[in-house]
Design a protein that fits this description.
This protein is about 20% helix and about 35% strand. It contains 3 helices and 8 strands; from the N terminus they run αβαβαββββββ.
Length: about 120
C-alpha cells in the first residue's frame, strides 16, 4: 500500500496550468506506477477536495549525449486532475425509504498550489 505523499510527487506550475486552475484543473508529477484510482484517492486525501476525473500522460526518457557519453533522461508521468468547484449535498434513500441529505465538507480549490489569477 502506497501513501498519498509517495504518489503525488510535486505540482507542475506553468502558464497553461495556471490558466487551467480557474477551471478546477490541477497538474502534478506522479509516480510512474500509479493508477488513476490511486491518484484520485491521493489528491482527495491530501487536499480534501472532490475529484471528478483524472487524465494521465506517460513521458518516455529522451536520448541525450554529452560528448562521447550517451544516456537517457528519466521517464515520468503527469496527471491532470479536475476537481469539483461547486460541491452539492448528496441525497440518497435508505432501506426504509427515507430520504437522507448528506452535506460533505469539500474544498473548492487547492490553496497550496498558489493563488489563482
Amino acid at each position: 500500500m502506497k501513501f498519498a505523499e509517495d504518489i503525488i510527487l510535486k505540482p507542475i506550475i506553468t502558464e497553461k496550468s495556471n490558466v487551467e486552475m480557474a477551471e478546477g484543473k490541477y497538474t502534478f508529477y506522479v509516480d510512474t506506477k500509479a493508477t488513476k484510482t490511486d491518484i484520485k484517492n491521493a489528491v482527495e486525501q491530501l487536499f480534501q477536495v472532490k475529484v471528478l476525473n483524472v487524465n494521465t500522460i506517460n513521458y518516455k526518457g529522451k536520448e541525450k549525449r554529452l560528448g562521447v557519453h550517451e544516456g537517457t533522461t528519466s521517464k515520468w508521468k503527469k496527471a491532470i486532475v479536475k476537481i469539483d468547484t461547486d460541491p452539492k449535498p448528496e441525497t440518497y434513500l435508505t432501506k426504509d425509504g427515507k430520504k437522507v441529505v448528506e452535506t460533505r465538507k469539500y474544498k473548492t480549490s487547492i490553496e497550496e498550489f498558489g493563488a489563482v489569477q
